[in-house]
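During the reporting period the student researcher (J.K.) took over the structure-prediction task from the postdoctoral fellow and processed the backlog of single-chain submissions. One of the processed entries is reproduced below for the supervisory committee.
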Amino acid sequence: MPCSAVTLSIATICAIIATALLAIAFSTDNWLHYDVWRNQIQSFAAKHSDAESLLHNMNVKYYYYTRTRGLFRICYPKERPPVSAVPTYLSPIETHCSNIDYFPQAEDEKIANEDATSRLHLARSCIALFIISFVTIFCAFWTGLSGCWKRSSGAITATSILLLVTCLLAAGAMGLWHTVEFFEKEKVVGEDYFQQWNTVLRDNTKIAYDWSYIVAWAGIGTCLLASILLSGAAVCLRNEREKEEQLNLQYLMPVYSQKQPPYPPYANYAQPQIYPGPYYHGSQYGPYNY
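J.K. obtained the following structure tokens:
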């Protein structure tokens, strides 16, 4: 079996898997998991100097509840906060969720300082890069389909480049996502985030990466692998095309036109030529008397 067929098959499978993984990661809500130990917070509240305010916040602030966070939603797999704290709705997987607001009002305290504004722009850019990566992978689908149909090494090379661009865009989006995470942990960007939590909430909350985050990186790695395989398939197609052309040349016989006149029949040379006329014995000029 030609190496191009094997490599193209594996690359196509990898590209499909990469697209599916990136789509799943983009649409699911399990990038970060906040595990809040509410029972321990209640026990510590009695010893806290501001116990009344702490207990009040536990019932009216959503970040005192165990939750998972994605690119678009915050979901509550256990207890959900009251509607007065944050409006929730049932997601397609039957989990109570609330939307993340990427366009807050100008007077909102969430964008009251420069760090908060930078975090908001970075979060928007992360979403934009993911969307552009899906556009490029859609274009790669059509160029790859054309390349496989026509067995064109140029189209396969273009597909490889588009998948590489998709990989870089998605990796850039992940980089922006980590930058947003850094701002939320180290900068003053709002009371919803780690830097402005009180000590009791910090000590009784565990933050961990969830499966959607892992799926996103797996999709990026698979997309890079598909790009490399497609590049190898393009080289195989080019080499196979050159071999086919060389084999075809061996069967082509050169034909040269003959311009010289044809030779007379061989019989003309085999028979002696007979010249008419009188024949004389002796001199051909006749007898002379001296």
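The committee noted the following: Residues 211-250 form the longest helix (40 residues).
J.K. will present the remaining backlog at the next meeting.
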